[in-house]
Structures are given as structure tokens and as C-alpha cells.
From TrEMBL:
The chain crosses the membrane at residues 14-33, 39-56, 63-81, 87-105. It comes from the Bacteria. The keyword Transmembrane applies. Keywords: Membrane, Transmembrane, Transmembrane helix. Residues 16-109 form the LiaF transmembrane domain. The keyword Membrane applies. InterPro entries: LiaF_TM. This is LiaF transmembrane domain-containing protein.
Length: 129
């Protein structure tokens, strides 16, 4: 149990350290005059990063991280323009393709057909309080 707590604490420290390092590097580059894209430190990029980090921490299981990642990804793709080509026209198709791949590739919960019709004993004993 103690090793699990230490590992969890080490993961949190690593994630926080990387986050602070990235934000500090972006501010450093911006203050030295290097052109940093405007969308780097916006709310949607931070939401995208938080969603991916949550997914990594939970081995990409569940759907909370996916919602953050999709919302952050949509707004981040809308803000990015590469070579005067605006990515907002392909945002919805990319999200739909990603969602389809997630539905196809997510782990399946396998239940036998017999489990649906399995009779479970009913307890009719009275509970005294």
C-alpha cells in the first residue's frame, strides 16, 4: 500500500513538474521575442492537456478524460492555422473519425448469454431493526 502511495505521489510530482516546465518555457520563448503561436496557452489547449493527462493516469479507461480531450481538441483545432489553411473546416470530421475509432477500439465487456437468464435466489427473510 505504501509503495502505491509513493508511486502515485511520484506521478503527481512528475506531471506537475512537466506542466510548470512547459509553461515556463513558453513564457521564456515569448519574452525573448520568439514567435509562439497564440493558441498555446489558451483555455482549450490546457483543457486538452488535462484530458490527456487524466486519460494517461487512468489508463485511458472511462469517459471523463475523453470529454475534456474532445472539447479541448475541437477548440484547439479551430484556433490553429497552418500555412494559411484554417483547420476549422476539418474539425468536425476529425472528431467524428476519432469518436468512431474510440467506439471500435475500446475494450469490450464480454458477458455470456447464460448470465442473462441465470436465476438468483430471492431472500424473503424479514429484517428486524
Amino acid at each position: 500500500m505504501e509503495t502505491l502511495i509513493k508511486k502515485n505521489h511520484a506521478d503527481k510530482q512528475l506531471g506537475l513538474g512537466i506542466l510548470i516546465l512547459v509553461i515556463g518555457s513558453v513564457f521564456f520563448l515569448r519574452n525573448t521575442g520568439i514567435d509562439v503561436p497564440h493558441w498555446i496557452l489558451r483555455w482549450h489547449t490546457i483543457m486538452l492537456g488535462a484530458g490527456l493527462w487524466m486519460g494517461y493516469r487512468k489508463n485511458f479507461q472511462g469517459s471523463g478524460w475523453l470529454a475534456l480531450t474532445i472539447i479541448g481538441g475541437i477548440f484547439t483545432l479551430r484556433a490553429i492555422s497552418i500555412f494559411d489553411f484554417n483547420l476549422s473546416g476539418i474539425t468536425v470530421p476529425v472528431v467524428l473519425i476519432g469518436l468512431g475509432l474510440y467506439v471500435i477500439l475500446k475494450p469490450k465487456k464480454v458477458q455470456n448469454f447464460d448470465q442473462y437468464f441465470e436465476k438468483k435466489p430471492v431472500d424473503f427473510t424479514e429484517k428486524e431493526s
